[in-house]
Amino acid sequence: MAVSPSALGKVVEVFERNFRDRGELGASVSIWWDGAELLSHGHGWCEREQAREWTRDTMVPVYSATKVPAAATLLLALASRGLNEETPVREVWPRFPQPQARFHQLLSHQCGLPVLDRRAGIADHPAVVAAIEAQTPAWVLGDGHGYHPRTFGTLVDEPVRRLTGLTLGAYWREMIARPLALDFWIGLPENLWPRVARLYPAKAGKDDLADAFYQQLTTSGTFTRRAFSSPRGLHAIHEMNEPSAWSAGLPALGGVGTASALAKFYQAAIGSIESPLPVQVRQALATPRSSGEDRVLLRPTVFTNGAQQDPLDGQGRKLRRIYGPSISAFGHPGAGGSHGLGDPETGISFAYVMNQMDLSVMPGAKCMEMVNALFSEMSWDYVI
Prior knowledge:
Beta-lactamase; alpha+beta; five-stranded antiparallel beta sheet; three-stranded antiparallel beta sheet
C-alpha cells in the first residue's frame, strides 16, 4: 500500500498552514515508506529572535517520544542475553518491588510505580533506583495500568545497565542509533549542542483547562500530579533548554533528535529496513499488553511493550486515530506535540517535532491533521 504524491502534498499543505494559522515557530516532518524517506520538510526558526533558521537537520527535545526507542533498547538488551519480555524482572533486578512482574508488565505500565514517596532527583539514577526499590506499588499487579511518565526512564535504564554494563543511552547509541545512522540521542554530546532548537511553553485554553486530566495535573496532591512529579526535576520548559538536560540521557523524556531520525527508527521497528532489531523485538513493540482506563492519563489507553496503540471500542473500532487507521500501528507522543509512529501493515512511518509546544497530552491539531492527511487516501475495514 503505497503513499501517493497527493497525500504527501496534503501533509505539506497542513505543515505550511500550521505556520500561517496555528503559531508554529519551527518544525520538521518526516515520512518514510518501504525503506525510503518520501518527505523531509523543515521550516521556521530555532528561537523567537530568529537568530537560527530551522532546517531538516535541526534537533529538539521530544520528551516522551523517547520512550519507544528506550523500550526497543531494553528489549534488545534482553534478547542479547537470551531473555525476552516474558522474563521475570527480578531475574535481572533482584530488588524490584513487584515480585511477580515480568518485563512485559513493566514496559506496559502495569507495575503500579508511577509515583515515588521517597524524594529523588530525576538525574540521580542511584537515588531513583533506591526510591523505586523502597516503593509500595500503587495497585496490585494485574489490576489495571497507569502511565508511568517519569519513572519509566529508570525502570528501563536500570535493567539495561545490569544486562550490558552500559547506560541505556550508551547502549542505544552503540547497538541501534549508530548502525542506523540515526541523528537521535539519549544523552547528547557537547559538540551537537549548537544544533538544538529552543522550546517554548504552551498557553492553556478553556478547552484544555476543562479536560479532566489537566484538572488533576494542575491540582496539588492528586495521583496524576504526583506521577508527573516523580522523580523530581526538569518540570519547567526552561530547564529542558539547558545542555545539562540534553546530556543527562533520560530514557523517559530526554531524547533529542530530528524528525527524520525518529521516523527512520520506526522503519526499523516495523521491519521496513534492515536493522539490529530482531523479529522478537519488533513483534514485542507491536503486541498490545495492557488496555482500558488509564489510572494516570484518565482516559482509555493501550500499551504494547513500550509503545502506545489506539484504544478500541466494543466493536473493535478505534476510539482515536493518533496512529492512523491500522489496528497494528504503534508509536508514542511527546509533551507539547512531538510524535512518532510506525505502521507494520502499510510500511509507513511518520515523525513530527517542533519547538512551539501545545498543551496536549496527546498530539494536537498541528500534528493530527498531518497524520490524517497522510492516510486520507487509504481505506480498509478498521474492525478486527
